[in-house]
Amino acid sequence: MKRRNLLKGATSIACLAALPRSAVAKAFEVTRTDAEWKARLTDLEYKVMRKEGTERAFSSPLNDEKRAGVFACKGCDLPLYDASTKYDSGTGWPSFWQPLENAVETKPDRKLLVVRTEVHCRRCGSHLGHVFNDGPPPTGKRHCLNGVSLVFKAA
To answer: How many CA atoms lie within 13 A of 117 on its CB side?
Structure first.
């Protein structure tokens, strides 16, 4: 490979790495334009679900939801978490120790000084929250989620 081509390739990779993650995001089964997302979501939902923001702690009524049912993605209605895996983490956000099978995906989040694990809907890519390793048995995981990213469906 010629030196000039090698430098072009390295420059292209560096440029991609510098782009916001949403600019190089994978293709999801459910896709909408930015305008379509803005039209269907409130400002806060859009900020959290599409721009990876966070709602204020203790602001979601779903934090206190205790009925049997399923928590689904607000963006595409995919069932994500069974209510039986929800627990009170004391953090102020709905928390679960396990998602439903094939419901969520994760990726590294490097926005803070430490690398966290972001969790998002595997079907539409909506940002849900983060996964931590301080949850209860049997998984030891805490899926700490934004209530505005979820819809509760009672059983």
So the answer is: 11
- Position 109 scores a pLDDT of 82
CA distance 20 to 5: 25
> What's the pLDDT band for 20 if we cut at 50, 70, 90?
very low
Euclidean distance between CA atoms 155 and 100, whole angstroms: 15
Task: Quote the DSSP letter at residue 127.
Answer: E
The phi, psi pair for 73, rounded to 5°, reads: -70, 130
Q: What is the pLDDT of residues 63-85, one digit of tens each?
A: 999 999 999 999 999 999 999 99
Which residues 6+ apart lie within 8 Å of 118 measured at CB?
Answer: 52, 106, 107, 108, 109, 127, 129, 130, 131
Write down the catalytic residue from 73, 121, 124, 144. 144
Told to judge if 76 belongs to the known catalytic residues of this protein, a careful annotator would answer: no
